[in-house]
Design brief:
By secondary structure, this protein is mainly β. About 0% of the residues lie in helices and about 40% in strands.
Length: about 140
């Protein structure tokens, strides 16, 4: 059995989506697919099972969402087709990392009493994805 295509894409923070093509039966029907991940940033890491897909159903969903990963680490994804004769295909994926802190943050008096103006420049690293928003919070520390 040969899985010809494995695709890994970032789904969000600490999460990747894995999809693959159906394996050719080669004499025996595929009973399941097993998706394993291995953190390539950790020396001597071993593959860990992320999910198992039942291939005996009609039109099985050949996809798996893997969560709990470490942002910024590279992962090898292995997809195994099982029917007694196991084969695999692999793909390397890196989840988004955390962005660095905004640069040159400054606070100044605003145009009215009780108003502050906060300015900053974008972080030097966006963590591998577009930043969608910034949130600024103010706290009254006077008690």
């Amino acid at each position: 059995m040969v899985i010809t295509t494995v695709t890994g894409s970032v789904a969000g923070s600490q999460t990747i989506n894995v999809t693959w093509s159906a394996a050719a039966a080669n004499g025996a029907n595929v009973s399941s697919y097993v998706v394993k991940t291995r953190d390539l940033s950790v020396a001597n890491s071993v593959p860990v099972t992320a999910c198992t897909v039942d291939a005996t159903q009609a039109n099985p969903n050949l996809a798996c969402t893997v969560s709990g990963l470490i942002n910024g680490d590279s992962y090898e994804v292995q997809v195994f087709a099982a029917n007694g004769l196991t084969t695999q295909a692999t793909k390397q994926v890196t989840p988004y990392g955390a962005p660095s802190a905004p640069r040159n943050v400054a606070v100044s008096a605003g145009s009215a009493s009780g108003v502050l103006t906060v300015t900053w420049q974008a972080p030097s690293s966006n963590g591998g994805t577009s930043l969608l928003q910034y949130t600024a919070e103010a706290f009254d520390q006077s008690g």
